[in-house]
Each structure stands twice: as C-alpha cells, then as structure tokens.
Amino acid sequence: MLAELFIEYALRLGMSVEQLSTTHQQVSGWYWSDAERNRLGRLDLRAARRQVLKLVLARLDIDRPALGDEMADAFTLRRELLFKPFPGTIETLKELQRHGIRMGLLTNGNSEFQRSKIQRFDLARYFEVIIVEGEFGVGKPDQRVFFLRWNNLALYPHKPG
Asked: Quick check: 56 and 70 in contact, CB under 8 A?
C-alpha cells in the first residue's frame, strides 16, 4: 500500500520510487524510534504521518508541505479501509460472550481511528469496558493501564449490546 503511494507520488515529485521509499524509511525509523514521539504520535496518527511526510520532503529538498499532507492523508485513508478483524475473531468473541466471559477491550492509539473501527465492526457489543489510549492517556505497554481493577473502571464503562 505504501509502495503504491510512492509510485504515484514519485512521478509527481520527479524522483525514483526507491529514493522516496528509502528516505521515508529513514525518516520514519528516526521518528518512531523515540519513545515520547512514538507515544504522542500514536495519539494523533494523522498529525504524525503528516509530520513524517513533511520531513521526508524537506530531506529531499522539496518545499511542498501541502503535498506531504496530501500523501499522508491518502495513506491514512487507504490504511483505514484495509483494516478488518482477523478470521474467526467475531465468532470467538461471540463464543466467549455466550459462555459468560467478562471482557474488556484495551487498544492503543488515537480515539478517532480506534472508535471508528470498533463501530465499523460492531465490536462494542462484546465488551463491558473499552479503554482507548487516546482517551485514557496511556496505553500498552505502560503498566498503569494493566493495573486497573474492574471496580475502578466506572470511568470507562461500556454497556454491551
């Protein structure tokens, strides 16, 4: 998917796909390698992707920040459309629920994207509690999110169904 995007935009930028791809790998690796940038970037993926693509274009001496935003937004849209539950996920959730297993959903990332997926795949019906990193403030692997107790989750309730 990213390769397809680079094919489209490399031509517009007058460069090789390899040059665009390699520069993106370098900048993206640098951006996401920092723990704090990673944490903040997960909370606003759209802004993080835009920042990465702007940095890529700057490194390539291309002064077209709006094009960086366009590329990032095109990637975000394509990526979100590709998401779907793994085979057997919904059936497994139904079976666990049928057996009375109490379940909570803990997901990293920004609320907009995560809530969209939860709604699109009708996942909320299976969980008593849903905690999204962007709403709670921390996510996996931060230990604070794992030390919540069921009785302390009144702030994050979700009524199944």
From this structure: no
| CA 72/CA 76 separation, integer angstroms | 6
The label of the residue with tokens 């990213």 reads 2
pLDDT confidence bin for 150, thresholds 50/70/90: low
Q: How do 104-107 and 129-132 pair as beta strands?
A: parallel
| 93-136 per-position pLDDT tens digit | 999 999 999 898 988 888 888 999 999 999 999 998 888 988 88
Interval 57-67: pLDDT, tens: 999 999 988 99
Domain edges within the chain? 2-82, 89-155
Q: Residue 111: which residues within 8 A CB-CB, separation 6 or more? A: 132, 134, 135
Q: What is the homologous superfamily of the domain 89-155 according to CATH?
A: HAD superfamily/HAD-like (3.40.50.1000)
Instruction: Let me know the angle formed at the C-alpha of 66 by 64 and 68, rounded to the nearest 5 degrees.
Output: 80
What is the DSSP annotation of 99-151?
A: TT---EEEE-S-HHHHHHHHHHTT-GGG-SEEEEHHHHS--TT-GGGGS--GG
